[in-house]
Write a structure and sequence with these properties.
alpha/beta; 3-stranded antiparallel beta sheet; 12 helices; 13 strands
Length: about 350
Amino acid sequence: MKEAQVYLDCAAAMPPDAGVLTYYSAMLKEFYVNQEAIHLLAYRGRQALADAGRRVSKVLTGDENHPVIWGGSATELFRLLADAPFFRSAVSSVLEHPAVAANLGRLPEFTQWHADKNGAIVPQKLAKIPDLALFHQVQSELGVIQNLDALFELLPGACRAVDAVQAAGKLEIYPGADIWIISGAKFGAPGGAAALLKAGGRFTDLLLEHARKYRHDQYAAGRIPVPQALALAAALETCESRRQSELLRLAQLHRLIVERCAALGIVPTVEPEEFSPYILNLMLPQQQSAIVVRALSERGVFAASGSACSAESDTPSAALLAIGKSKNAAYRSLRLSFGAATTAEDVEIFLFELENVLKNY
């Protein structure tokens, strides 16, 4: 067995493809100006940014005409939505990224729907339809794929926003949205994020005008560097070119880990009807996952004990508590997440080192 150097935390940040990094380097040399200036180089930058938006739209929907609002991160775009003056009420779920509740919770009316034991969002009756409905397509800790049709059909008239952060570049994104939010770091881009808007949608012009004021009047958002937007588009294109083969390959690795971990008393945390093969959440029999993660990292194997955004918290995973797990169980959750660089040899190394860690726990 070779010395371990295995990265299984791609849901937090996926390693960039070498070709994408080469392209990014070239774009840094070509588009280094501030695209908001008035000279010709800035104009070329604005054209390149528009081109990046069309490429993102084409990859995600097959149609290059969906407008894009660029951001530095998905969190920044959640904040932009929460600050839109035409959204006064919203509904999401207890399983959303913490940034969703932190931002939408500032609205006058905010409701969070519950979840069942396998991570499916369970709708509750609302007194009135909210202005905004925001749900994830893939749950970032559990890998559960939500039935968004079933959720949105109960909210006629609401703006349909999808957190596609763990779906973009990996799965076909949900088609029936008004807004899709994606994050470049999750599919191997060197940063950046985007909100893709439905072409001709009911909320599209409102959101574009709000984003313009948010940036240029309120100075509440920065500008994305053109090379970063272009690299984000290139990373998406790279992922799309191998999406089907990756789904099959990672599903096989997913099954292998589940089968081999069963002998160690480790079982999947949830058994959803649909799940992403890019994320696997496991329940350790009695060991605290944070300790196991640290021990694995000392052996060159890098996994997670939950969402990276709350990894240093002393409190157990909010997502696991939300699906009815005890506090003790929530501390035993181990998240593995995969990408194009994850190999069968990586999985064998992980299983070998995990068994050793558990023996010496």
